[in-house]
Protein 1
Amino acid sequence: MSRAPTVREEAPQDVDRVREVVAAAFGGEKVAGLLDGLRESVAWLGLSFVAEEREEVVAALCYSRAWLDTPRRLVEVLVLSPLAVRPDRQRVGIGSALVRESLQRIGSRPEPLVFLEGDPGYYTRLGFVAAVDLHFTAPSVRIPRLAFQVATLPGFDQSWMSGALVYPDVFWRHDCVGLRPEMGAGLP
Ligand SMILES: CC(C)(COP(=O)(O)OP(=O)(O)OC[C@H]1O[C@@H](n2cnc3c(N)ncnc32)[C@H](O)[C@@H]1OP(=O)(O)O)[C@@H](O)C(=O)NCCC(=O)NCCS
């Protein structure tokens, strides 16, 4: 039987452990490198959460800064990336608990929207919807239409907040936008 993990904000002493969890979950250095880059970039908000079991970090999630290019002005929004659960603790509800609880905790922030790229089957259960349905445009045509997801926060005003998501350059530098052919781009 598994107990609910403890979700808390990331602390400075968690950084190395979080990096290990991210590299293990994604099976390589690429996304861990993105996280390193985020920490040193204009996108960094220090808005990261971890899930612990028996006082050990087993999952991590980061929200960082991006922009929505609306007709009226650029609006600061959040991007959820990466989300990582240690491989031996996947599929027992830890990732879902981390997303749900962290979304609740950021509900009073000024950013009106949280965007991500991910499996709609997973994130729809956690409060995300297809961003195209709310008239948002993805930052790349290499992001599958339904993988471009968004959750609205209390500050969202649908009457004027539409437009294209603009990623900070760190996502491009680490080539962490959308899919490449070897990752299944072109599949329906
Ligand atoms: C994807 C991930 C964050 C999910 O976290 P988790 O704690 O394993 O998932 P949960 O236990 O909360 O949810 C389990 C359910 O989500 C779904 N699910 C899990 N991993 C999934 C994946 N990679 N794609 C789609 N659905 C997935 C399954 O339906 C599963 O239910 P099932 O066990 O009945 O089949 C985790 O598996 C992970 O770190 N994967 C590697 C890194 C990654 O892909 N991160 C997300 C990038 S968007």
Protein 2
Amino acid sequence: MRLAGKVAIVTGGAQGIGRGIALCMAKEGADIAIADLKVEEAAQVADEVKAAGRKAIAVKTDVTKQAEFESLYETVRRELGQIDIVVNNAGSASRPGNPFTNNVEEDWDLVWKINVKSIFFACKAIAPYFIDRKAGTIINIASIAGPMNSPNMPPYSVSKMGVVTFTKIVAKELAAHNVNVNAICPGILWTAFWHETAGRIAKAGGKFAGMTPRQVFEDRVNLLVPMKREQTPEDIGWAAVFLASDQARNITGQALHVDGGVVM
Ligand SMILES: NC(=O)c1ccc[n+]([C@@H]2O[C@H](COP(=O)([O-])OP(=O)(O)OC[C@H]3O[C@@H](n4cnc5c(N)ncnc54)[C@H](O)[C@@H]3O)[C@@H](O)[C@H]2O)c1
């Protein structure tokens, strides 16, 4: 029970990686707030957390809106008593198979808003509370797409490197207040995110023409992952549990690749 007595907020926790993080943290004793646009799916994950014996709430939140963080944190403190861990996981891909020469302004605006600005909002709103308590943990979900410098998804790749850079900046500022701030860079996971991305890659034709999304995904895993297996939401969840636990109290400003060796 590495997170007993703690309260964690997981954005984008209604499905995929966020759901994995929420369930792993609940298994380790944390109460959980799921903050997502998809409030019905978030409520189902909250039910799963409750079934594991923890308290849980679902809070409809749009992470692209700054004001929503103030009300999210207020709701969580009222319903669950405190906030110890903030996991900024909500994010979106940019259109795959689009080199920067094909990008349009909207491609960049979309991921900047959802992947980067949202984390600034989240950190800015929680910082005074964590500083006041002289305790807290922030975990930002970045991606291997940052360090891989992906020419097929430039806005996504740049946004996720931005997440890593901003993680280190916030870690430096909050270190003296006993707040640790780290990023996790997941590898390749079969979530709605990759289902949709692989579908778009197949539609773009070329070597992938006629493949199912799952076949495209498996091709990518075989080509890119030295350990030759896909990652799972639980892989990311257990890494997040570790970073949020006292075992990691001296780890800050790091980007942990959970990717079967892709970036290596
Ligand atoms: N799946 C992968 O292979 C992979 C790899 C590396 C990094 N990531 C990152 O992991 C995170 C989660 O990805 P996933 O694979 O679980 O994706 P997903 O699409 O399955 O889940 C994303 C969740 O975020 C929520 N969300 C989206 N926009 C939101 C907004 N404006 N406000 C609140 N919630 C919002 C969605 O409703 C959804 O529940 C993302 O940041 C993604 O970039 C995913």
